[in-house]
Amino acid sequence: MQRLPKIVLALLIQLGVLLVVTVGVYLAPAVISPPYPYWGLVFIQALLASLVSCRLGLPCWWRWIQFFIPVGLYLGVLLKFDPIWALVIFVVVWMVFANAFKERVPLYLTNNTTREALKNLVKRKRRVRFLDLGCGLGGNVAFMSQLKPVAESHGVETAPIPYLISKMITALRGGQTFAMDMWKTELAYYDVVYAFLSPEPMPRLWNKVKEEMLPGSIFVSNSFAVPDVEPSEVWELSDSRKTILYIYRL
Ligand SMILES: C[S@@+](CC[C@H](N)C(=O)[O-])C[C@H]1O[C@@H](n2cnc3c(N)ncnc32)[C@H](O)[C@@H]1O
C-alpha cells in the first residue's frame, strides 16, 4: 500500500470508508430510524477517513486533507459550485506545483537570511558562476547576479507559472532563468550550485553532482542533507525556521 502514489492511496482510503459508511447506512435502521442527514454522513466519512489515513500509510498530516476532501465536496454541492472552477483551480495549482506531483518537490522560497549566507559563501571568490536548481520565482538568481564576485547567475525551473515569474524578475533585476529540467543541466559549468528541494531527489542529485561538478566547486543544499554523505560544513542560520545549509566542497 505504501508504494502507491499518496494521492491514489488517499482516494482508495476515501472509497474504502465510503463502502463502510454505505454498509453502516444499510444496517443502521436496526438501531436508529432513518432518515439520516447528509451533513452527518459526510462528517462521519470525513472523520473516519482522517482517522485511518495515518495508520494506512499516508503521512499523518494528510489527515487534514482527508477530512476536508468530503467536506469540501459536500459544500461544493450545497453551494452549486460550478465544476469548471474546480478544473480551473486544479490547472492553476498544477502550473505552480507541478513538481510536487512529479518530483515530490513543492514550491517554497529561500529567505533573506539564507541569501545573506550565500553571499558570505561567495564573497572571497572571483568570477563565480552560480546555478539555482529549481529556481522557483527566480529571487535567488536575481540576488546572486547583483553580487560583485558573481559573473553569471542562472536558474532552471520546470513549473510553468514560477518559471514565467522568474523570467520577469530576472529581466528586471538580473540573472537568467531557463525552462529546463534540473536533471538536464550541465553542472560542470558552475562554481556554486544551490538546491532547495526535498529529501526525495537528494541521492540521485548527489550522483549527478559527483559526476559533473569540478574540483573546487561547491554544492549547497538548503535543509536537506545528502543521505550518508558527510558535508564539508554545516551552517545553522539564525532565522526563525533555523535553516540549515549543507555545504559540500567537491
Ligand atoms: C522548494 S522550491 C525552491 C525555489 C527556489 N530555489 C528558492 O530557493 O527560493 C523548489 C523548486 O524546484 C522546482 N523543481 C523541482 N524539480 C525540478 C526539476 N526536475 N527541474 C526543474 N525544477 C524543478 C520546483 O518547481 C520548485 O519551484
Automatic annotation (TrEMBL):
Q: Does the keyword Disulfide bond apply?
A: no
**InterPro entries in the record, alphabetically?**
FAM173A/B, SAM-dependent_MTases_sf
Transmembrane segment boundaries: 7-30, 36-54, 61-78, 84-101
Keywords in alphabetical order, please: Membrane, Methyltransferase, S-adenosyl-L-methionine, Transferase, Transmembrane, Transmembrane helix
Q: Key word Membrane present in the record?
A: yes
**PANTHER family in UniProt:** FI06469P (PTHR13610:SF9), METHYLTRANSFERASE DOMAIN-CONTAINING PROTEIN (PTHR13610)
Name this protein carries in UniProt: Class I SAM-dependent methyltransferase
Organism this protein belongs to: Thiomicrorhabdus immobilis
